[in-house]
Amino acid sequence: LDRVKAMGINTVFLQAYADPDGDGVADAVYFPNRHLPMRADLFGRAAWQLSSRTGVRVYAWMPLLAFKLPPSHPAAEDVVVSRRGMPTGAYRRLTPFSEKARSTISDIYQDLGRHAAFSGVLFHDDATLDEFEDDSPPAREAYRKAGLPGTAEAMDADASARSAWQEFKTRSLTAFSREMIDVLKRHQPDLKTARNIYARVVLEPAAQERFAQSLDDMLANYDWVALMAMPYLEGSADYAQFIERLVAAVDARPGALAKTVFELQAVDWRSRRPIDDMLTVRAMRLLQTKGARNFGYYPDDPYNDHPSLTGLRQAFSLTAEKE
């Protein structure tokens, strides 16, 4: 709490789920609920302490699809399937086309909204479907109802169908997230919304096919777009050039900079080593110079003071016009 207050920041994205093995999937959550183990009843208390004692706005950071249900759960095997023969892609996710899975996720979000008070929700980067997904039975049925060929293989063989398929998946993920927002707003009527987007989608328009994400779609549907401005995650060797290209791509859309939060990486996950503090601070200053109004970083390590509080305090010096 002292560290957060000393930074001079105004928003915290706080994980409401537990992922002890680091695979990006929620094994448990930090609030009472009907479907997942509760690792500890911590989220509500932590959110209240942060907001009341430091004045920050707290967003509940949650997966949209990546929940590891108990093996005996009726929806446990209703997962995203790839036509390449693998059950899932980057994350093991529940398929958004299964009514059982959708109902279960809706219950989890309802329980979150009932058991804690917070300012917003951030949808995790699991809300994607790549160019080979989803080929599960519920997804095939959804495609047929939408007038599309019934299998991923059939759509992949036809350019027109493939394009329509990708648009359908992009819209479906957004629509489902909007349903979860409505669920939360029953208990948090003033809720703000944010969703993670991969940098590749912003830099390469064709990447929508590989992620089922669209910057224009997100700008239209959420209060904030949480852009993963993480050069090493994307394999870029030139940190500064990557940041500059990303800001320019966002700025090409009128008003987009005002709604985009640039999320920097404080750890190089390839080597599992912390990134030099000054590199993070210089990136924040570069973002400001290029016109970005909102930025942050992940993860924070308060026990080892990484990134260093001294550098962060300088970079996060808020002015009246900054969000």
Can you offer a commentary on this structure?
By secondary structure, this protein is an alpha/beta fold. The chain contains 13 helices and 11 strands. The strands form 3 sheets. It has a 7-stranded parallel β-sheet. A two-stranded antiparallel ribbon has the order 2-3. The longest helix has 27 residues, at 159-185. The two termini are 20 Å apart.
Structural key phrases:
323 residues, alpha/beta, seven-stranded parallel sheet, two-stranded antiparallel ribbon, 11 strands, 40% helix, globular, disordered C terminus
Brief characterization of the structure:
The chain has 323 residues and is an alpha/beta fold. 40% of the residues lie in helices and 14% in strands.
Shape: globular
Q: How many helices?
A: 13
Please estimate the helix content. Answer: 25-40%
Query: In terms of per-residue confidence, which ranges show pLDDT below 50 for 5 or more consecutive residues?
Result: 319-323
The end-to-end distance, rounded to whole angstroms, is 20 Å
How many strands, what sense, and barrel or not for the largest sheet?
Answer: 7 strands, parallel
Tell me the total number of β-strands.
11
- With strands numbered from the N-terminus, the spatial order across the biggest sheet is 1-4-5-6-7-8-11
Q: Structural class from helices and strands?
A: alpha/beta
Mean pLDDT score: 93
- Rg from C-alpha positions? 20 Å
Q: State which percent range the strand residues make up.
A: 5-15%
**N-to-C SSE string, H for helix and E for strand:** HEEEHEHEHHHEHHHEHHEEEHEH
